[in-house]
Specification:
489 residues, four-stranded antiparallel β-sheet, 10 helices
Length: 489
């Protein structure tokens, strides 16, 4: 009857373990508007597209694919997923009984710490121990570990979307720098020709020395601008090389200009509420909050007694020859209830600390959602205003070129001074560089919009894979329900 009695105690304990202390996770309330502030195209969001292919630049596609394979930050994020997966397996093992084997042999005259006759003892036993989860401590620990695993999965996606946007942005910067270098070299050649002509005129005594000096100043300015742009090219190539997981070095790129990538159609962005499911940083913040919520239950359970059941079965004998004899069987069962009586408020303080950490993560989640909506709105505003700015810059360039040609003709005809020519050529150089930068900013704002929308980096498949692993690790009768199951895109 004794085994039945112990089984009854174990069954009762398992029933008690079905109740877990601490709050269950609930998604915090966030005031999400129905539409974005900036005007956007209605329709289903294009965030799940492989948006880098829209630029129709095979070199950019190749760099993106290379970064996905070789980037070190992405490799670190993948390793963190495996770490979280192993940690979950480690934590969930506490919910199962633990069986240890013991074998020992002793020979000496101080078996009890007192000198005497020589004694021998041989032991072979199995020890079974199990902590009954009376207050849900182990269950909440398992919940926290599996939410950390899911957070690590979406954290990898945060790294991925940031990586892809960085690769595209730096590549577009390089295309813009190529164009600015071309503008600077063209301007340098023009100013060198102007200096040669003015120097020849000065040698003939038709122009003053100040015209030569001013032409030399403008030539030096073009040389300095070209050197600065080439320096930026080298730094950008080094930065992109590291993103690709390679040592710093030159980057192959297409000969198309930034302006050739502006034929991308209008982009539907969807609804703000979709960001709660699509943005990986929002989902990561929510999973971290869910894990922290479970830790409140762990802290509360630690304030109550824990019940441990142990059993042992084996053989013990002072004679190795008679070790298997029936009279040498040893067994034992025990139950231990251990709990705090006076801890000077340590347990209460632990619960308060976990609640305070949870409150921090609630606000962090709400802030992440607000920042996500801001980033989408900012990107929409940037796209709209940069488009208008780029059109104005192009008109400015046309006017500056016309002014420069007219000033040169007036100077050659002796109608005006060289100062007018210098000012018009300075303006042309300045507005050409500004127009190139504006076109680059216009294209980069499209990249930023896709990043702000959250992208579609295989999140649902990976989440389901992680959930399958979690379900496989649960003890019989336990059920896994993620905090919020994201809809299919």
């Amino acid at each position: 009857m004794r085994p039945l009695r112990w089984l009854s105690v174990a069954g009762l304990s398992a029933l008690l373990a079905s109740c877990a202390m601490g709050p269950d996770y609930e998604r915090p309330v966030v005031d999400v508007p129905e539409n974005y502030r900036a005007e956007s195209i209605p329709g289903e969001s294009f965030a799940n597209l492989e948006w880098w292919e829209l630029f129709d630049d095979p070199e950019l596609v190749r760099l993106v694919e290379m970064a996905l394979v070789n980037n070190k930050q992405l490799a670190i994020a993948l390793a963190r997923i495996e770490e979280a997966r192993a940690t979950l397996g480690f934590v969930r093992a506490d919910m199962y009984p633990n069986l240890d084997g013991e074998f020992g042999a002793f020979r000496g005259n101080n078996a009890l710490g007192i000198p005497g006759d020589i004694n021998e003892n041989f032991v072979l036993a199995g020890n079974l121990s199990f902590e009954v989860d009376l207050w849900g401590k182990l269950r909440r620990s398992n919940e926290a570990a599996r939410d950390v695993l899911l957070a690590s999965v979406v954290a990898r996606n945060v790294v991925t979307i940031t990586l892809l946007s960085d690769v595209a942005s730096v590549y577009l910067v390089l295309l813009d720098l190529d164009q600015q270098v071309e503008i600077s070299r063209r301007t340098l050649e023009t100013r060198q020709d102007s200096l040669d002509i003015i120097q020849a005129r000065f040698d003939k005594g038709t122009v003053p020395l100040i015209d030569v000096n001013q032409a030399q100043i403008e030539l030096g300015d073009a040389l300095a601008q070209l050197a600065a742009l080439e320096r930026q090219q080298g730094l950008a190539e080094n930065a992109l090389s590291v993103l690709l997981g390679h040592p710093p070095g030159p980057i192959e790129r297409s000969r198309i200009g930034v302006a050739d990538t502006l034929g991308i159609p209008e982009i539907p962005v969807g609804l703000p509420s979709e960001l709660l499911q699509r943005r990986p940083d929002v989902r990561q913040s929510e999973q971290e909050l869910a894990a922290q919520t479970a830790r409140i239950g762990v802290a509360e359970a630690l304030r109550w007694p824990s019940l441990s059941l142990t059993a042992s079965l084996g053989r013990s004998s002072s004679e190795l020859d008679d070790f298997l004899g029936s009279e040498n069987k040893v067994w034992g069962v025990s139950a231990n209830l251990l709990g705090p009586i006076f801890d000077a408020g340590r347990g209460k303080a632990r619960v308060e600390a976990e609640r305070a950490r949870t409150e921090q993560l609630i606000n962090a989640y709400q802030l992440t959602v607000l920042q996500a909506m801001q980033e989408v709105d900012d990107s929409l505003i940037n796209i709209s205003t940069f488009r208008s700015e780029a059109e104005a810059r192009e008109q400015q360039v046309q006017a500056a070129r016309s002014a420069a040609n007219l000033s040169r003709a007036r100077y050659d005809g002796g109608v005006t001074s060289y100062l007018e020519v210098l000012e018009s050529e300075r303006s042309l150089f300045r507005v050409e560089l500004a127009a190139s930068e504006t076109r680059r900013a216009q294209v980069v704002s499209i990249v930023e919009l896709y990043k702000a929308l959250g992208g579609g980096w295989a999140t649902d498949g990976e989440i389901e894979q992680a959930g399958s692993f979690i379900r496989a690790t649960l003890p019989p009768g336990w059920q896994y329900l993620p905090p919020e199951t994201p809809p299919e895109p």
